[in-house]
Specification:
This protein is of the alpha+beta class. It has seven helices and 15 strands. It has two domains: 141 residues, Fructose-1,6-Bisphosphatase, Chain A, domain 1 (2-Layer Sandwich); 110 residues, D-Maltodextrin-Binding Protein, domain 2 (3-Layer(aba) Sandwich), CATH 3.40.190.80. It starts with a helix and ends with a helix.
Length: 261
């Protein structure tokens, strides 16, 4: 897995170069069918990451947010899952909270995770069973979730579907209840990076509905390797096919689930 981790880190750092080269400059911006935004920074970093994966790991399928699924000609049971630029709306507005998220899934299990946060010069990474780490300014340190003991003294994060309707009403209802119950709820607009902050112990929990595989694959492994719990809203082990993710430190997970269900 170390070989694949190195490939993922290389791809993420190359994406960082593209992100920072366009950051706070004029971008080509389009609206996608789901009303979300895409920029030329998204598209160029996706194309670059795909070319790296094709060149170094032709045995794996590729699933990226912008160009979808690309099947390998070889019969290996693995796929790269990535978001070339998570937090595009933040990025377009110059709000410095965005990242590149990459995961490798083999036979249905996420084995490698890399999330690179260019604005903070941080790279989060993990191999299943070997712990989670962050590299920043040439230093590497292990990730460990916080020691929060109860929800009332916790800082939580979330994100919202933006297309309205009853689903949004339900999420706002949860949001309101947790604002009243916790020390605060943050909404920063890049789920993959918020999951990293849970793994790092800066946040105590995170929940969100409607995320895609490329949003959650890397972050879910990082949290588990840092000692956290990741489930769906029913408390079952999180699957990339689940529509809701609930991640937190073990001590508050049941209490947090009580609000999200």
């Amino acid at each position: 897995m170390k070989k694949y981790l190195d490939i993922a880190k290389f791809a993420a750092l190359e994406a960082r170069k593209i992100h920072l080269s366009y950051y706070r400059k004029i971008l080509q911006i389009q609206n996608k069918q789901d009303s979300s935004l895409v920029s030329n920074a998204d598209q160029e970093s996706e194309s670059m990451i795909r070319s790296i994966f094709r060149s170094h790991t032709p045995e794996f399928d590729i699933l990226g947010e912008e160009e979808g699924h690309e099947k390998s000609a070889q019969a290996k049971k693995g796929r790269w899952i990535f978001d070339p630029l998570d937090g595009t709306t933040n990025y377009i507005h110059g709000y410095p909270f965005f990242c590149c998220s990459i995961a490798l899934e083999i036979q249905g299990k996420v084995e490698v995770a890399v999330v690179d946060a260019g604005p903070f010069a941080k790279t989060y990474y993990a191999i299943a069973g070997q712990g989670a780490f962050c590299e920043a300014e040439g230093q590497v340190y292990p990730l460990k979730v916080s020691r929060a003991q109860d929800l009332g003294r916790s800082l939580i994060a979330t994100g919202f579907m933006t297309y309205g309707g009853r689903d949004l009403d339900h999420q706002i209802d949860i949001f309101k209840k947790l604002i009243e119950k916790t020390r605060g709820v943050r909404r920063s607009g890049a789920a993959a990076l918020e999951l990293c902050l849970v793994a790092e112990g800066c946040l105590d929990g995170f929940w969100e509905f409607g995320l895609k595989e490329w949003d959650t694959a890397a972050g879910s492994l990082l949290i588990k390797e840092a000692g956290g719990i990741v489930t769906n809203q029913d408390g079952q082990d999180f699957s990339l096919q689940d529509s809701c993710i609930v991640a937190s430190v073990p001590q508050i997970h049941s209490e947090l689930l009580g609000f999200v269900r």
